[in-house]
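Q: What would this chain look like folded?
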Amino acid sequence: MLALQRGDLVHRIKALHDQYGEVVRIAPDELSFVSGKAFSDIYGNKDFQKNPIWIRPQVNGFHSIHGANDTDHVRFRRLFSHAFSDKARRLQEPILQSYVDLLMNRLDEKVPASATSKAVIDVGQWYNFVTFDIMGDLCFGESFHCLEESHYHPWVTILFSSFKAAALFASCKYLPGMDRVLRLMLPKSVTQKRRDHFDMIKARVDRRLEQRGTDQKNIDFMAYILRFNDEKGMTIPEIEATFPFVIVAGSETTATALAGITNCLVNHPETLQKLVHEIRGSFTHPADMTFEAISKLPYLGAVIDEGLRICAPVALGSPRAVPVGGGTIDGHWLPGGVSLYSVPLGSLLCNLFFLRVSFLLRPSFPFLADATSPASESFASPDSDFSRH
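A: My prediction, written as structure tokens:
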């Protein structure tokens, strides 16, 4: 509970795994597993539902696509699938290209023209600027204007504060019978930030909904939601509850991954040099760097895959609960309704049980010669022979 409130839960769990092994108890009724088999057993079995400690409805009382039950989740996902189709992605590509161009222009302004001059740039902040602007445009056809103004939109600032509020609320549930008392003890600002966060996005959702019927050429996510919504689709409160999650899922996580990958690259010049050589050797003009063309660069794809492995933007795996009647995880039987567990992604990717030498440290890994070879597939599996090298 205290580790969750401090924000170092993942580090604490990893330390416990390093000391005690692949299975550790992190609460009276919660276990943490860190093995490839446990990951498959937990997330490959629909009987293991989301841990209710972490599932809360939005301020309006409705669940987002992230917190919805299986039936509602399928309904939400079916509707959102239209916004993520290949056709939609091709139509949306110019939107992303325009914001990437703006990002590069703004960074050029920050870097002195002289080759001998130096500039300190917080790329993590700029990655957040561009990803939030992109998601604002993709969701509502309306940017947050972070890149233009070189600072966070008030909603983005509130969002980062709401992450801490969510951790505080979740930690209260670890003391049954005391959670209501603890909630009353939380500063009012914590609750208010959560409401402010929701209200600001709700206002954008409502403003966008008012445009339906007059936006036949719009290609943002909301256009597809409205175009294909029917009696089996989503209600307005469900849409309002889901879009705050969609924005975060596409922005902050992407920015975190990009910042982690950039950090690895600048600290390993040989890898960076090989990546730069592949990109600059494949394109003569930025306009040539389309989604399709970029997807054909094997070394870039390998860098991204490896970067996501060692710089996972979501450090804690989605917690699950053992179903009634119990269940078996990696050979361990657990009683239903008693034990809760999770797979902390940070531990899973970094623990000593399947330590791998990252190609970000050794850029000459042989599988990179053919990114479609079986070796590249085994690279992604923690239980493969490759992972033990």
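The first helix runs from residue 2 to 6.
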